[in-house]
Amino acid sequence: MKRNHLNRRDFLKGAASAAAVSTLPVTTVELAFADPAKSFSFAYISDSHIQHVKGDQFVNNWDRGLIRAVAETNMLRPKPDFVMFGGDLAQLGTKAELDHGAEMLAKLNYPTHCLLGEHDYYLDLGEYWSELYGPHWYSFDHKGVHFVVLNSILTHDEWTFERWPTPEQRMLEMAGLDNPNGSPFMVGEKQRAWLATDLEGVAKTTPVVVFSHSPIQKIYKGWNFWTDDAEQVQALLAPFNDATVIYGHVHQIQYNQIGNISFHAVMATAWPWPYPQSYAQAETYLPKLTVPMNRADPFHERDATGWQFINLETGRVAMTYQLNNNTDRTVAYNRETGRPEDTTFQSPESRISPQIHY
Amino acid sequence: MTKRTVIVGCAVVALAFGLVGYGLYADEFTDADTERWQGEFMSVVEDGRALWGSPDLGTNGVACGQCHPNAANTHPETYPKFQKQLGRVVAFSEMVNWCLINPLEGERLALDDPKMIALEAYATWERRGVALEPGKH
Question: What is the ipTM of this complex?
Answer without folding.
Answer: 0.88
